[in-house]
Write a structure and sequence with these properties.
Subcellular location: Cytoplasm, Cytoskeleton
Protein name: Kinesin-like protein
Bound molecules: adenosine-5'-triphosphate
Number of domains: 4
Organism: Petrolisthes manimaculis
Number of strands: 33
Strand content: 15-25%
Number of helices: 21
CATH superfamily of the largest domain: Kinesin motor domain
Radius of gyration: 60 Å
CATH architecture of the largest domain: 3-Layer(aba) Sandwich
Distance between the termini: 162 Å
Main location: cytoplasm
GO molecular function: ATP binding; ATP hydrolysis activity; microtubule binding; microtubule motor activity
Helix content: 25-40%
Length: about 950
């Protein structure tokens, strides 16, 4: 029996170790071998790694870089030290075990995205031929063209996304399958590759309103596992790229500790920084965010999930943790460089890198945003925000099954599945000639180009190995980037690449290089990652069953049953045991394998027996249950029949009622119709009635007008007749006296002459008193004698006919004309007789009534004590126009010892709407245009004033003769 010894650098078999002789035989490259590093195993055994002499020579010439030895000083080879060949490496997690000798492989999927032109009418060198082909046409300015390579080039991709493609389309086609893999426990790598400014960062990150690959991935992951998320801290990292699961109580105390720590950190950050890390802009971004709402359905519902994210960048070939906590107080150390390590499963990981457990896309985006702020970005001539480093955002999904009851997480480490998806935004390749970079930018560009070149070399060698069956060492370790990618290219998951292209002609030469690399990459095959299904022999659907059980229990409790202590019983167990253990034939470990298989089979037999017993019990219980159910069924059937009869009756009643309802509805309809007609008629009637009312009002107004005209005429006629009669009477009287006098004797005649003369005088006097005054005689004699009054003539325009009528009423027949009121007695004391409901005039000019006594009802005492009287009347028409009149007069004692008012003056205040036209403003006017006095009201109100005593029933017209 012999073991192979391979060269650490080129992986060629360089020696065989023979158990029989304990010696070594050179083989393969036949160049001999040297010790390179030694490994001390826990058991104390020391093993060696070797390199062949050829690789040793190449490394000494610096044309090959070797991985650093762990020990600087290699211990001297001691021939007595047993040289134990290295044990074969454990198969990396998820890597398919070669049983039949063939391994399923997938090509690296390469997609092409062409960004929209930067300017309109930009000269372009890229054309989309169809959904998977692009054509590159060299512009005359290009280096290739000038070197005589002016031919058009055709490149094929998995899919080409043109300038108008959406972020959603790109994500669905490129990344969604990787998200599905991630959630089912498989690893994936997606990286954006291209020239600077070609849209790699846009593709990976996008904008809040239209998220790129990273944002959408987070959305879809959380959309898919929302209901199945584990509580925070149930899973925690073991510091060696693995995870442990812990009980709920431990998780609770860890949560509290974390909260306290993050609280104190947040306080410290707030204290030291005014702008809390752009939290405002972050929340603003979140508010503008349009999340992707799609989800993956094929996930194991009986698992619980936790998501961890990390964010690192490779800058100048150093790795930095973008989420590292940097103390803000005290001397700041800045970000520390990290190293890449290999875990127990030979997976590469960034040692001591911060992994944040996130519970929502918003949490994850907050972390992403935090990292982005630390990314090295700088202005270059080709991109104002050019990434100067490669960034790797890794999402790790940790999942573990629920226990048999579907209640708690199974915490054994071997049941935990960890998968990861690395989303890489590579820095763009750039030529200093074009960027005109200086200083740091040149160094950065050099490092970027070197790492990209190394990626290209690795891919080239991989492809060559795959095509030729060669075994050339792939120089993953030459740069941090390829070192980190090693697992993926070695078969640790699906690899996809999005090649970003800027179609502008200036980029032709670089774009051509990118295309060549893309073509190369698409020919590389990576081993398909097949995640072994973990079968713990637990019933599937237990989470749902548990939920259902709890729901039923709650419902029973609500209905009054005591189901609180019922426990979930999710037996039967559907499988006999977990999957067969992975065993391989090896004579050394035969015993161990047989024991393992024996244990497994015993367990299976035990499970089978248990299941059989369980099955018998269940059959019995099901039978009794069925019998019980049948009895119930019989009862229920009879109940059903009676219910059906009732139902039929009810159905008949319902039909009757429906018919009635239909009748009622049709009656209702006809009534509604009638109602409508009546309403229409009513409207018409209302219109007619309004017209009639208007005509009536008009007629009434006409009648009033006519009545007033006739009344005036009648008065005038009466006056005229009266005058005629008086003239005639006077004439007849004097004629009678003249007839009587000659008949008398001289003595008698003397006596009688004197008496007749006196009688004649009396008669004449009486005539004079009774004769109505002509318009020139209309001024009351008392007026001129009354102090404090302004005499008016007819020429005064403010005095109109109605005023004269009022003035006429103040006839001086019974007044003591010689009455003089002394000023000392207060001849200017007024009785201000106002209407009961006075309309406020709001006028600026107001009559001056000094020392007035304001009354609404006049008593004789008021008149006796005061000397002047003012009566205010108001009239308001329907248009709101107001007419206010002030009748002023003197209070004089009458011959009979009473008091009377002699009106001397009328003031009229008319308030009119300036907008109203005479037509639109109907106004009560007399035929000569002067407003009419409302005699009735006036008479009623001033009856006391005129008479000196109250005569409520006296008509104004009948009093006029006495005045
Ligand atoms: N598909 C696109 N649609 C709209 N704008 C785009 C698209 N691709 C790129 N851009 C815009 O082009 C500019 C440069 O893009 P981006 O920064 O993503 O390039 P890059 O390839 O990451 O460059 P670098 O390698 O220098 O970081 C950005 O302003 C971005 O918004």
């Amino acid at each position: 029996m012999s073991d192979e010894v391979r060269c650490l650098a080129c992986d060629n078999v360089v020696a065989d170790h023979h158990d029989s002789c304990g010696g070594w035989q050179h083989r393969g490259c036949q160049t001999g071998l040297s010790r390179y590093k030694y490994n001390k195993l826990r058991s104390g055994i020391i093993t060696f790694d070797f390199i062949c002499n050829r690789c040793k020579f190449l490394s000494s010439q610096s044309s090959l870089s070797l991985p650093m030895p762990i020990m600087e000083s290699t211990p001297m080879f001691n021939s007595r030290t047993p040289m134990v060949p290295r044990k074969p490496r454990p198969t990396p997690r998820g890597r398919p075990v070669e049983r039949s000798g063939t391994v399923e492989q997938d090509p690296v999927e390469v997609f092409c995205r062409i960004r929209p032109p930067e300017q309109e009418e930009q000269e372009e060198c890229v054309t989309v031929v169809d959904h998977s082909t692009v054509k590159l046409s060299p512009p005359p300015t290009s280096f290739a063209f000038r070197n005589g390579n002016g031919k058009e080039q055709i490149y094929k991709f998995q899919q080409v996304f043109g300038p108008n493609c959406t972020q959603k389309d790109l994500f669905d086609r490129t990344t969604k399958p990787l998200v599905s893999d991630l959630l089912t426990g498989k690893n994936g790598l997606l990286f954006a590759y291209g020239v600077t400014g070609s849209g790699k960062t846009y593709t990976m990150e996008g904008i809040p309103q239209d998220g790129g690959i990273i944002r959408r991935t987070l959305d879809v992951v959380f959309n898919s596992i929302t209901e199945y998320q584990a509580k925070r801290c149930i899973f925690k990292t073991d510091g060696m790229n693995g995870f442990d699961a812990q009980s709920e109580s431990d998780a609770f105390s860890d949560r509290r500790r974390q909260d306290a720590l993050s609280g104190s950190r947040a306080t410290r950050t707030r204290k030291t920084r005014q702008d809390p890390g752009g939290s405002n802009s972050n929340s603003q971004n979140n508010s503008q965010r349009i999340p992707d709402i799609s989800r993956i359905d094929e996930i194991d519902e009986d698992n619980v999930f936790s998501i961890f994210v990390s964010y690192v960048e490779i800058y100048n070939n150093y790795i930095y943790d973008l989420l590292e906590y940097v103390q803000e107080v005290g001397p700041s150390r800045g970000l520390q460089t990290k190293i890449i390590r290999e875990d127990a499963q030979h997976n590469m990981y960034v040692h001591s890198c911060t992994e944040v457990e996130v519970k929502s896309p918003e949490d994850a985006l907050e972390v992403l945003h935090r990292g982005q702020k630390r990314r090295k970005i700088a202005y270059t001539r080709l991109n104002c925000e050019s990434s100067r480093s490669h960034s790797i955002f890794t999402i790790r999904v940790v999942q573990a099954p629920l226990d048999a009851q579907g209640e708690e997480v199974v915490t054994e480490k071997e049941n935990i599945t960890v998968s990861q998806l690395s989303l890489v935004d590579l820095a763009g390749s750039e030529r200093n000639v074009r960027t005109k970079a200086v200083g740091d930018r040149v160094k950065e560009a050099g490092n970027i180009n070197n790492s990209l070149m190394n990626l290209r070399t690795c891919i080239e060698i991989l492809r060559e190995n795959q095509l030729t069956g060669g075994n050339r060492k792939v120089p993953y370790r030459d740069s941090r980037l390829t070192h980190y990618f090693k697992n993926y290219f070695d078969g640790e998951g699906h690899v996809k690449m999005v090649v970003c292209i800027n179609p502008k002609a200036d980029d032709y030469d670089e774009t051509l290089t990118v295309m060549k690399f893309a073509e190369l990459a698409s020919e590389v095959q990576v081993q398909r990652c097949i995640q072994p299904r973990r079968d713990l022999g637990l019933p599937p659907g237990r989470r749902r069953a548990n939920q259902l059980f709890k729901e039923v229990r709650n419902r029973l409790q609500e209905e009054g049953y005591n189901a609180k202590n019922e426990v979930v019983d999710l037996s039967p167990i559907y499988s006999l045991a977990p999957d067969w253990p992975a065993v391989s034939y090896c004579p050394d470990t035969m015993e161990e394998v047989i024991t393992k298989l024996k244990t497994y089979l015993v367990k299976r037999i035990h499970n089978r027996e248990k299941l059989n017993t369980d099955l018998k019990d269940k059959i019995l219980s099901v039978r009794s249950h069925i019998a019980e159910m049948e009895n119930k069924n019989l009862v229920l059937n009879s109940e059903l029949r009676s219910i059906q009869t009732l139902y039929r009756d009810a159905l008949g009643t319902i039909r009757n009622l429906q018919a009635q309802v239909q009748n009622a509805e049709s009656a209702n309809d006809s009534l509604l119709k009638q109602l409508n007609e009546y309403q229409y008629l009513k409207v018409e009637c209302d219109v007619v009635r309004e017209e009639r009312d208007m005509a009536k009002v008009q007629g009434h107004l006409d009648k009033q007008r006519m009545k007033a005209r006739l009344k005036t005429k009648l008065e005038l006629e009466k006056e005229r007749l009266k005058n005629d009669m008086n003239t005639k009477l006077t004439q007849q009287k004097s004629e009678a006296i003249d007839l009587v006098l000659p008949v008398l004797s001289t003595n008698q005649s003397k006596i009688y002459r004197t008496q007749v003369k006196a009688l004649k005088e009396m008669l004449l006097v009486d005539d004079i008193r009774q004769t109505p005054r002509s318009s020139t005689e209309s001024e009351p004699p008392a007026a001129s004698a009354t102090p404090g009054f302004r005499p008016r003539t007819n020429s005064d325009p403010s005095i109109n006919t109605s005023q004269q009528q009022v003035v006429d009423l103040a006839g001086p027949a019974v007044v003591n004309l010689r009455h003089r009121r002394s000023r000392s007695q207060g001849c200017d004391k007024w009785v201000d007789h106002r209407p009961t409901q006075e309309v406020p005039t709001g006028t600026i000019l107001k009559p001056t009534l000094t020392r007035n006594k304001s009354v609404t009802r006049v008593r004789t005492d008021d008149l006796a004590k005061n000397h002047a009287y003012c009566l205010t009347t108001q009239r308001q028409d329907s248009h709101g126009e107001l007419e206010t009149k002030l009748y002023k007069g003197n209070i004089l004692p009458t011959a009979g010892g009473g008091t009377q008012v002699v009106f001397q003056d009328v003031e009229i205040l008319q308030q009119r709407d300036p907008m109203a036209t005479p037509q639109t403003s109907p106004r009560k006017r007399s035929s000569d245009g002067t407003p009419k006095v409302d005699h009735n009201t006036l008479q009623d109100r001033c009856a006391v004033g005129i008479q000196g005593y109250s005569t409520p029933n006296t008509h104004f017209s009948s009093k006029r003769s006495k005045m």
